[in-house]
Each structure stands twice: as C-alpha cells, then as structure tokens.
Amino acid sequence: MIPSAPANPSTHLLDNAVWAALAGPHARFAERVGRAARYPADVYAFAAVADPADPAAWADLHTLVGPETVVRIKGVESVPRGWEVVGGGRGVQLVDTALRAEPAPEAVRLGLDDVPEILDLVARTRPGPFLKRTVELGTYLGIRCQGRLVAMAGERLRLPGWTEISAVCTDPACRRRGLATRLVRAVAAGIRERGDTPLLHASATNAQAIRLYESIGFTLRRRTRILQVRTPGTHRGAGAL
Predict the structure, then answer these.
(1) Residue 228: burial class (beta carbons within 10 Å; 0-12, 13-18, 19+)
(2) 84 and 69 Cβ atoms separated by less than 8 Å
(3) What is the pTM of this model?
(4) How many angstroms separate the CA atoms of 240 and 82, rounded?
(5) Cα–Cα dist 135/69, whole Å
C-alpha cells in the first residue's frame, strides 16, 4: 500500500526550493560559499542564495561563481545593482494534493549507463534541463518499447519534506498511451514511501502539461520567475541592493 502524502509539510521552503535542497538533502552536491550555493555544472545548472533580500548572500554568490559569469537562479524577482539580467522566463509550481501514486510494473530504473539513451530522448522531447549527471539526483524510471527508451520521469530537487518530479517526457511516436502519467504516479509512489510530498515545476507557457498535472491530482501553488543573470565585473558592490 502506498502511503498518502504527509500532512502539512512546510510549504515556505518551496519559495526558495533550490536553496532548501542544497542546504538540506542535496548538500552533498553543493558548491557553496557562505549563504550562496550551486549545483555542479553537469548536474543541474542552477544556483541559489539563502535570502534574496540579503546583500551578503549576493556577495557570496559573486565570490562563488566569479565576475562576469552568467548564472541561473529561481524564485528571485530582482537582482542587486551591478548584476545584469540577460534572460529568463516564467514557470509554475504545482504540489501533490490528490495524486493516486502507484508502481508501474513495466518501468525500469535508469542509471549512469543509460545516460546516452536519456540524453537522446531529452533531445527529442525537450522536457527541460537534463545534464550528464542529473540522473544522480534521485530515482529515474523509464519505459522501453522494443528495447528503446520512449518515456521517462524522475526526481530532481529534494528538500525537507518535498521531492520534485522532473524530466517527464514521452517520445512523440508513443504519446497518448498514458506513459507519462504512469511514470509520474510511479515516481510519486517512491517519494511518498519515504515520507515526502511530490511537487512539480513547469513552464508557464506549457498549458498542456499543466492541465495534465492538474487532472491527475496536482494543484497550482505559485507562479515563479527564472532568471539568467550576469555577475558584476568586480567584487565591489556585488551585493548592494
């Protein structure tokens, strides 16, 4: 029997999920200086600060990544003086409120040996960032058809009480078979078994995916901003707000 979601996990952590992961369950991946941290570039190309309102945290991030460096960061609406926004987008965050989690007998565990196949599927389907070592972040499950990987989903951010389901994708030739839904339910089953609650992030423009997630038991919690920023050229003023 798959346990239901734990009651009332701490939702405030979701406002700064990357930091909560790097300062918590994913600390082993963290490259960190003071109140700033990032994942290794071949694992997940995001950084975070403990408090976006704290100039010292931004100064730590500048020290961590260096001058005139482009870095991606979530959950931040503005950056200090001297930092340049060079790109970005809008996303949504959804949390499990009524998902039916259950194993998928046909799913197989994916690991480092499967990365070439995974990257090929990602290139065909573009579910979002997936790098050579992303598979190390948690459990990834796949479904094969005639030996070929055609669908996948897995765990990315893990923070206290929560685990993100990510890289949900299906080969275009195999869609409309419910493969993605079965994999989401199966990944969620593993998350629930260890006492965490599943969450998801999606592009705000991906209406089809958002409708799917809502239809199977996820609820929109908040809209988010994703920024690509360039650090100042010198340390002076790097954290001034």
Answers:
(1) middle
(2) no
(3) 0.91
(4) 8
(5) 26
Query: Locate tokens 């999920």: which residue?
Result: 17
Asked whether the beta carbons of 59 and 82 are under 8 A apart, the reply is no
Rounded Cα distance between 36 and 52, Å, is 10
Cβ within 8 Å of residue 159, ≥6 positions away: 13, 14, 17, 20, 21, 24, 25, 26
Owner of token pair 């038991």: 217
Return the biggest CA–CA distance within the chain.
Answer: 58
Decide: 230 and 70 in contact? Cβ < 8 Å: yes
The side-by-side arrangement of strands in the sheet containing 148-159 is 31-33, 36-38, 47-49, 70-74, 218-230, 84-96, 197-203, 162-170, 148-159, 140-145, 108-110
- Contact partners, residue 40, CB within 8 Å, separation at least 6: 29, 31, 133
Q: Are 62 and 231 in contact (CB under 8 A)?
A: yes
Residue type, 206: N
Neighbours of 89 (CB within 10 A): 12
pLDDT 10s digits, 144-203: 999 999 999 999 999 999 999 999 999 999 998 999 999 999 999 999 999 999 999 999
Q: How many Å apart are CA 169 and CA 150, to the nearest integer?
A: 8
Query: Cβ contacts of residue 75 below 8 Å, gap of 6+?
Result: 15, 16, 17, 18, 48, 52, 224, 225
CB atoms near residue 18 (< 10 Å): 23
